[in-house]
Amino acid sequence: MSQKHEAPSTEASRLGLQADCSSCFGLCCVALPFAASADFAADKDAGQPCTNLRADFRCGIHTRLRERGFRGCTVFDCFGAGQKVSQVTFGGQDWRQAPDTARQMSDVFPVMRGLHELLWYLTEALALPPARPLRSDLRRALDEIDGLTRSSAETLAEVDVAALRHDVNALLLRTSELVRARVPGRKKNHRGADLIGAKLNGADLRGANLRGACLIAADLRAADLREADLIGADFRDAELSGADLTGSIFLTQAQLNAARGDATTELPPALSRPGHWRLEP
């Protein structure tokens, strides 16, 4: 039977790790750069507001992003960093009212997103019963990073997210090993593997290590991905129709948003079925 674990939704909600665009000053539409490509219809420099950003910080083409060539926007997830920077770091003062904060706000936003992503992984790890032996270390790491997210803009700008990620990843890897050890039989190791376009229809990937695997356009229809470690796996255009992702670990909404699926794709309880997926199998 598939291992069950509590969804990190309660802790994630407490820490504000789910995006609330109504409390953000459109920071992802300002701080981040993008280049004209299959994902974006135009070029935009970092710190330059997107031409689709309205005066109320909402997207003027939100319901038509994909058809207007802004598919990349529908994939992105800030893990709640936008509202934290807007409402906590800068106390609700937006960059239009205070133009002198615009540059600093744009610099801090990517740092905050990196910290919030780590908090997302740590909250999930804390909810996994097999990770109980690591709970004190996981909690210590979470509390330290949560404290950093409440620092001043000046302090946040100096945070070395890569170094923190390295330390947290060691804990997450140990967590992964404890979870996957509960799965009977030999588990596949595809860590960092090039699986672009791989034919994995119906594959038994239960408990597999897919950390950092490149699964772009892979066929994962009806694949068993229960208890698989999916941290950092690239699911762009991967076909997940009918796949079972329940109990998979370290999967994010952004990864699902980048993939293709349908009503038969089974998801972890903390994640949502993307709006662009097919409603019918």
Briefly, what is this?
It contains 8 helices and no strands. It is mostly helical and 281 residues long.
Q: What can you tell me about this protein's structure?
A:
This protein is mostly helical and 281 residues long. Helices cover 33% and strands 0% of the residues. The protein contains eight helices and no strands. It has helices spanning 9-15, 71-75, 81-89, 102-126, 135-149, 153-157, 161-180, 253-258. It is globular, with a radius of gyration of 19 Å. 40% of the residues are buried. Mean pLDDT is 93; it is low at 1-7.
Topology:
Layout: H1 9-15, H2 71-75, H3 81-89, H4 102-126, H5 135-149, H6 153-157, H7 161-180, H8 253-258
How many angstroms separate the termini?
A: 25 Å
Count of β-strands:
0
Rounded to an integer, what's the Rg over CA atoms? 19 Å
* Major sheet characteristics: none
Q: How helix-rich are the residues, as a percent range?
A: 25-40%
Strand content: under 5%
What average pLDDT do the residues reach?
93
